[in-house]
Amino acid sequence: MDSSKSWDQKSLVNEIIEGLELAKQLRLSLNAKSSSDKKQFLVQRILSSYEKALLMLKCSGSPQSPIGAITSVPESLMSASAGPCCDDNNRSLQDRHDLTEVSKKRKEMAKWTEHVTRASSENGIEGAHEDGHCWRKYGQKDILGTKHPRSYYRCTYRNSESCWATKQVQRSDEDPTVFEITYKGKHTCSHGRSSVPPPPSPEKQERKRHNHNDTYQQQQSQGNQISFPTNLRVNTENLDDTENTASPFSFTSTSFGCMNNDDAFLSLMLDDNGLLDNFNQSLLSPAAGGSNYYFEPASQMRNIAGKEQRSESDLAEIVSAKNSSTNSSIPDIDFSLEPAELDSYFPFDCPGFFL
DNA sequence: CATATTTGACCTAG
DNA sequence: CTAGGTCAAATATG
């Protein structure tokens, strides 16, 4: 990866910069209310740009690519052709049902990671992310080499609806405002983001202990500028095709959980690009929960990781939503889209937002 | 009282 | 054996 880069780092940077510029243009367009054609065109360009950049990265296969933002996902997990989501965590289940197949891999389900920057206490955005699903914490573990413990959550409806989706929340030690959320399995429950007003968010405990007043409500008032993803970083680490790869990233948050607008956002994305075709299904599938933004040129991106990414499903995506602010920017290369981009699509005034 | 969280014990892959 | 992941009893919350 370091030695023979099939891509020139400059090209990569350029690609990303271009994306950034385009995003800015898009923002302007949005503000100016220009024709939707133009907007769509811009979106397409942006995606194309990032797609290229990601491809370069993927090809390089460097875990520690220049882009610090990219988090390498530990292992590839393939999703057994088995079900969409149910599969692994239920060790016990599997054990009961068919131990034999589980032999090696413990993880067989689609998995992707999301990086969520949640508020700095000053912004009071802690707990700003929710994905519209109801999660129940079932464990917490101190992980070697990390300052903060990792929390384990599973779908509240695990039992009632056999929804085996789970997620892990790990606070970054470097940037305490960043939470790395790793999802596993797809929601099969019918309680997507749409309905349920997100209960306690994962980090709830922290909010509890720290502050709660200045949290999300504040943002509502601040409305467009902070609320949340100011800078959206999308990092795709391991992608593998996987038809059932569930719903990749939900742009964190409760917000999405309660808004319908994401549809607009999605449709925009989808319309413009064939790129996202593969995901349409899941994207639109109710179960998957609507606001998932797929970033996946399917076939092209997968692989490269080099290891066992067979065909199954090795999907790990990382989304970073930064709400920090204007400058979090990242000189080098973090993919960062300016806030406005999202703002226009997401109303933050919906009640229950960020909760 | 029902449901969610906490937390130490337990299980398993590596 | 270790670290990560899960279970489940105890406890907290509404």
From TrEMBL:
All residue ranges annotated as the WRKY domain in the record: 124-187
Keywords: DNA-binding, Nucleus, Transcription, Transcription regulation
GO function term, MF aspect, one: DNA-binding transcription factor activity
Any single GO CC term annotated in Swiss-Prot or TrEMBL for this entry: nucleus
InterPro entries per the UniProt record, alphabetical: WRKY_dom, WRKY_dom_sf, WRKY_plant
Pfam families with a match to the protein in the record: WRKY
Domain of life, source organism: Eukaryota
Gene Ontology process terms (BP): leaf senescence; response to hydrogen peroxide; response to ozone; response to salicylic acid
Region (Disordered): 187-228
Coiled coil: none
Chief place of localization: nucleus
Protein's cellular compartments: Nucleus
Family matches, as PANTHER family: WRKY TRANSCRIPTION FACTOR 30-RELATED-RELATED, WRKY TRANSCRIPTION FACTOR 41-RELATED
Stated family: Belongs to the WRKY group III family.
Designated name of the protein: WRKY domain-containing protein
Organism whose genome encodes this protein: Malus baccata
